[in-house]
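Researcher: Please translate sequence to C-alpha cells.
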Amino acid sequence: EVQLVESGGGLVQAGGSLRLSCAASGFTFDDYAIAWIRQAPGKEREGVSCIKTSDSSTAYLESVEGRFTISSDNAKDTVYLQMNSLKPEDTAVYYCTAAPRPRSIATMCRLWHDYGMEYWGKGTLVTVSS
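Model: Translation complete:
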C-alpha cells in the first residue's frame, strides 16, 4: 500500500520556522519525485517545492525561494521542507505528493497540475499568525 504521511505542521508566528516531513512507503522512492503542494483558504492549489530524489535536484515557487529548503533522506524514504521566515500568506494545508521521476524537476514543479501527481498525502496544516 502506497503511503505519504506528512507531519510537522502547526501554528507559528510570522518570522518563525517549521519543518515538514513526508514519510513515503509502498513505492520505489528513488524512481519518483516529491512535490509539496499547498492550498490556502479560498485559493487554488500551488506547487511550492519539488525534489527529484535520485539526484536531489530541486525547484521552488518564486515566493518561497530563499526561505524554504527541500531535502530528502533516501535511507529513510523521507522528504523534508524546512520553512523559515514564514509569512501569514504561507498559511495553507501542505500536501506531500509523488510522481514518476521527471526529466526536468523545474518543469514538473511549475506544471504539476498538468503533469499529474500519482500519490497524495492527507496534508498538514500550517498556520502563520501575524
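Researcher: Any highlights?
Model: Helices lie at 105-110, 112-115.
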